[in-house]
Design brief:
Length: about 230
């Protein structure tokens, strides 16, 4: 069983190479794009809704509810980013039930790229809500001497986000490989079910942590809004 998709080379032409991580990432993105087009091309606001539109509305409402609960803000600005993170990771992990599919989330390259997206999104949302000076001022709190520690905290948080998802997916793959070697007739179905559950939980945790970091970056704006309402 292939554990790390980075080491599986599928195509090479000179310096241009495509490994399993790139291929399956593109495959997941293509499936999501095609699925989004198929589901949203005939959306209705009245009458009987298709099962796919019902499923889409349940998914969007669920993500909106979680964003609202975590951030205490309207989910509109955050839904595209957080929802995309959750759906991409969840679909990548769910597709592991297909023989031959290697989840790109079991590659540190993919999880690091997702974590970097969160690392960039946090100041973008923070500056959009609080302004540049107010956002940068938080790195000087409670004193100027905390600046290097606050910067290290931001970097370590991003690293932890990438390693957490990679480690959980990698360890799950290794455990499945070991159990399938020991008892191939008993564990496959059980481990596949547990793998799906674990994959969905990991997608949920990653999206929630991303939302927590973004909500933390816009906290002052939220406090100001509360004071204004009072």
């Amino acid at each position: 069983m292939t554990i790390n998709p980075d080491g599986t080379l599928l195509f090479q032409w000179g310096w241009f190479t495509i490994n399993a991580t790139i291929f399956f990432t593109w495959l997941v993105m293509a499936l999501l794009t095609l699925g989004s087009w198929l589901v949203t091309r005939n959306l209705k606001s009245e009458g009987s809704l298709s099962r796919w539109q019902n499923l889409l509305e349940v998914l969007v409402n669920g993500i909106n509810s979680q964003i609202r609960e975590v951030s205490r803000q309207e989910p509109g600005p955050y839904l595209p980013f957080v929802g995309t993170l959750f759906i991409f990771i969840a679909i990548s992990n769910i597709l592991t039930i297909i023989p031959g599919f290697i989840p790109p989330t079991s590659s540190l390259s993919t999880t690091a790229a997702l974590a970097i997206c969160v690392f960039i999104a946090v100041p973008v949302f923070g500056i959009a809500h609080r302004g540049v000076l107010e956002y940068l001022r938080q790195y000087l709190k409670p004193t100027f001497f905390m600046l290097p520690f606050n910067i290290i905290g931001e970097l370590s948080r991003t690293l932890a986000l990438a390693v957490r998802l990679y480690g959980n997916m990698m360890s799950g793959t290794i455990i499945v490989a070991i159990l399938l070697t020991i008892t191939p007739l008993i564990f496959p179905i059980v481990m596949q079910a547990l793998g799906l559950l674990t994959g969905l939980i990991q997608a949920y945790i990653f999206a929630i942590l991303a939302m927590v970091y973004i909500a933390s970056a816009s906290k002052v704006h939220q406090d100001l809004e509360k004071k204004g309402e009072e």
